[in-house]
């Protein structure tokens, strides 16, 4: 019980609580005062890895031309991203409706419980995927990459 | 800071309380609307870090794994891919936090440990999702957004854990003297 009562006590003992107060800025200052040098170095290393991964993925995943639709690990359909069209498919638990538009292919309707596939929006780059777990459907973009590279040396 | 006698009733009670706390946070954060479905604040990790700092690494393992199992029972996702994702993420984050905390005791504070935990959780989830759900490297496209968000949530989780540990640690430091007549029954649960 002492754990609960102690958790809800107003002020923590110790001088490091001086800066804490209402508002966001005092919190940030308090947070900053708590961090050791190791923490700060770690923060910037992780931030650097994150920014680097954005750059490297930009190079890795160029715009694609063809979307492949898999249901239960079987290739059901290959959809060209150049043609604006609506496709109707049958998944494991219900019907799925895909629409191809300027910004890629997206799921506009699915009879699954969580609708995560619909929330994912449109995909158009090579390597991007939409997954619908209840329907066991995976949409991947593959085919020839767009002309994002000027030249490739052999 | 660490409670000395494991398996004492007090230790067990604290582990149970922290597991409940983590479970409550785990269920609470599933109700928060999320802009991107694969990004979660990871608030339940607060309970794990508090357990690690106030009760030791065994308690952290128990709190994290039990929270995943109970959370999946309540959420109805037992043995489904999302259960394996969450339990692998939790195991990886606890392992990373314990190792880094032991290696760099003077280097990293509780906030750094929080960041390490969120980062390891995210990496393990991407790896398991790649193997289990997609079977492809295409899942890597999610990596940057998950990495940067895990950095932010790790900071917040570490800060929140610090606030809790700063309040409960002084009490854990001075364990209650066990009365002579109660000493025998202390280990019996």
* Lateral strand order in the biggest sheet of chain A: 2-1-7-6
* Shape call of chain A: elongated
Q: Which structural class best describes the helix and strand composition of chain A?
A: alpha+beta
Order of SSEs of chain B: HHHHHH
Biggest sheet descriptor of chain B: none
Indicate the multimeric state: heterodimer
Give the biggest sheet of chain A.
4 strands, antiparallel
Annotation, overall tally of beta strands of chain A: 7
List low-pLDDT spans of chain B.
Answer: 171-189
Which range best describes the helical content of chain A: under 10%, 10-25%, 25-40%, 40-55%, 55-70% or over 70%?
A: 25-40%
- Terminal-residue CA separation of chain A: 70 Å
Poorly predicted tracts of residues of chain A: 145-154
Compute the average pLDDT of chain A. 77
Instruction: Tell me the radius of gyration of chain A.
Output: 24 Å
Estimate the helix proportion of chain B, in percent.
Answer: 55-70%
Shape of chain B: globular
Overall pLDDT of chain B: 83
What is the terminal-to-terminal distance of chain B? 24 Å
> Largest interface: which pair?
A-B, 43 and 39 residues
> How many helical stretches of chain B?
6
Radius of gyration of chain B: 18 Å
Chart the SSEs and their pairings:
The complex is a heterodimer of chains A (about 150) and B (about 190).
Chain A (H helix, E strand, L loop, with lengths): L1 H6 L16 H11 L2 H24 L5 E6 L2 E7 L4 E6 L4 E7 L2 E7 L5 H4 L9 E4 L4 E6 L12
Chain B lengths: L8 H21 L15 H11 L1 H19 L5 H23 L6 H25 L8 H31 L16
Helix pairs in contact in B: 1-2, 1-3, 2-3, 2-4, 2-5, 2-6, 3-4, 4-5, 5-6
Description:
The complex is a heterodimer of chains A (about 150) and B (about 190). By secondary structure, chain A is α+β, with helices and mostly antiparallel strands. Chain A contains 4 helices and 7 strands; from the N terminus they run αααβββββαββ. In chain A, a hairpin with a 2-residue loop joins strand 4 and strand 5. Chain A is elongated. By secondary structure, chain B is mostly helical. Chain B contains 6 helices and no strands. In chain B, helix 1 crosses helix 3, helix 2 crosses helix 5 and helix 5 packs across helix 6. The two termini of chain B are about 25 Å apart. Chains A and B meet through helix 1, helix 2 and helix 3 of A and helix 5 and helix 6 of B.
